[in-house]
Design brief:
Structural class: alpha+beta
Distance between the termini: 24 Å
CATH architecture: Beta Barrel
CATH superfamily: Nucleic acid-binding proteins
CATH class: Mainly Beta
Largest sheet: 5 strands, antiparallel
Strand order of the largest sheet: 3-2-1-4-5
Strand content: 35-45%
Number of helices: 2
Shape: globular
Order of helices and strands: EEEEEHH
């Protein structure tokens, strides 16, 4: 299941960042290799879809990050994705 969140921070020097889940909870860490569109670096405030994986020590990390555009959320909401529908309501 795809989750959605907003980039909280990204350090291009070390290739690590955090994403704040839309559904709440602690920000999740991710690395440069977890970002699907490697040509563009994540910027604070951008909305991304992501999956999660369990890492060493039982911590959950974000993986397979995909930048979301307004049209992406529309398509997912129309397809019945409840998280996308909620996000569309929040976007107004």
């Amino acid at each position: 299941m795809t989750n959605f969140g907003t980039i909280k921070a990204y350090d291009s020097g070390n290739g690590n960042g955090t994403i704040a889940p839309e559904q709440g909870g602690e920000p999740l860490h991710f690395g440069k290799n977890d970002v699907q569109q490697r040509a563009a670096e994540p910027q604070q405030g951008q909305r991304y879809g992501y999956d999660t994986k369990q890492a060493g020590g039982g911590k959950v990390h974000a993986t397979n990050l995909r930048q979301q555009h307004r049209s992406d959320a529309h398509g997912q909401a129309e397809a019945g994705d409840p998280q996308a529908q909620q996000a569309m309501q929040q976007m107004g």
